Amino acid sequence: MIEATALTKRYGPKTAVEDLSFTVRPGVVTGFLGPNGAGKSTTMRMLLGLDTPTSGRALVNGKSYADHPAPLHEVGAMLEARAIHTGRSAFNHLLALAATTGIPRSRVEEVIELVGLGDVARKRAGSFSLGMGQRLGIASALLGDPATVILDEPVNGLDPEGILWIRNLLKSLAAEGRTIFVSSHLMSEMALTAEHLIIVGRGRLIADTSVAEFTRQASSDTVRVRTPDAGLLRAQLSGPDVTVTSAESGVLNVTGLDSEQIGRIAAEHGVVLYELTPQHASLEEAFMELTRDAVEYQAAVPAAETAVAEGTAV
Ligand SMILES: Nc1ncnc2c1ncn2[C@@H]1O[C@H](COP(=O)(O)OP(=O)(O)OP(=O)(O)O)[C@@H](O)[C@H]1O
């Protein structure tokens, strides 16, 4: 369990995290999402005692990181996958880490198998690909068999097979009852991996929601209708909450009625339909919309596009 309460971090005049409160529960993967510079890494560093909050509190399994007598058994983390001694083999890297915390050699062998590094464990970690480095970072995080696992952008730069592997691993760790908190700036990836989402922007909480709820809200209720009788159908689709727009000939975009209702009205009036499609905004679009104002370094949008986006005729 992770509990952040009114967490704030300032670096001089820069506020990286501001009054951030959330709870991460065991048993599900929780995604920590936000655009670049939103404060995800800073929050994770405070959870791990690597940064001191300016104010507020960060607890992992009921205590601050520093108050745990054996923190590696409580929380395993990967913040910087490449923070390893490149001259050492993966096996020796993990063995050295284990030795400092009284973890037996057998556990080192266990995590090497768990992350699929068995064949290369004796090779120098410096020769590892990005994916192998990520696996080694995750092996280090899991070494102490921790109840809570915190990973900062673990899928960054991985190939599809590596992404699928991490996704399945995180789900299985959560199914064992662990607390899994994983950051990303990719909504589409998190939607496939996480069950719950904490979304931040400019250091502040924007949303604390389940993936299912986020997906439901992201789905717009517009239905695209293609018909040779657009004028006739349009006249029949009236109602106080119904809006019909048309951007191209023979195509109507209808809100306020679902596809079944539109299909029935069309049938009643003998209108031929070529297409009747509910439209869904992509999760990535919904995420970008939600965090639009919180993006720190926005690309300049040409004036004409801004006008169109804001509904101004140009
Ligand atoms: N040590 C520091 N000194 C000054 N500013 C910092 C420091 N660390 C982070 N910041 C600033 O705080 C803000 C939050 O940074 P942070 O790295 O936590 O964001 P993030 O969400 O992890 O972003 P990214 O996805 O780019 O890693 C940024 O504006 C960053 O420049």
Write up this protein.
The longest helix is centred in the middle third of the chain and has 16 residues, at 160-175. By secondary structure, the protein is of the alpha/beta class. The chain contains twelve helices and 13 strands. The protein folds into two domains: 2-217, P-loop containing nucleotide triphosphate hydrolases (Rossmann fold); 220-278, Alpha-Beta Plaits, CATH 3.30.70. The protein is elongated. Helix 3 packs across helix 4 (105-114) and helix 4 (105-114) packs across helix 5 (130-142). The strands form three sheets. Strands 5-6-7-3-8-9 form a six-stranded mixed sheet, sandwiched between helices. A four-stranded antiparallel sheet has the order 11-12-10-13, covered by helices on one side. Strands 2-1-4 form a three-stranded antiparallel sheet, covered by helices on one side. Bound molecules: adenosine-5'-triphosphate (ATP).
Q: Order of strands across the widest beta sheet?
A: 5-6-7-3-8-9
Q: Quaternary state, please?
A: single chain
**Low-confidence stretches at least 5 residues in length (pLDDT < 50)?**
300-314
Basic shape: elongated
CATH class of the largest domain: Alpha Beta
CATH topology of the largest domain: Rossmann fold
The computed structural class is alpha/beta
Ligands, deduplicated: adenosine-5'-triphosphate
**Average pLDDT value?**
87
What is the CA-based Rg, rounded? 25 Å
The CATH architecture of the largest domain: 3-Layer(aba) Sandwich
Strand content: 25-35%
CATH superfamily of the largest domain: P-loop containing nucleotide triphosphate hydrolases
- Largest sheet features: 6 strands, mixed
Helices, by number, come to: 12
Order of helices and strands: EEEHEHEHHHEHEHEEHEHEEHEHH
Overall strand count: 13
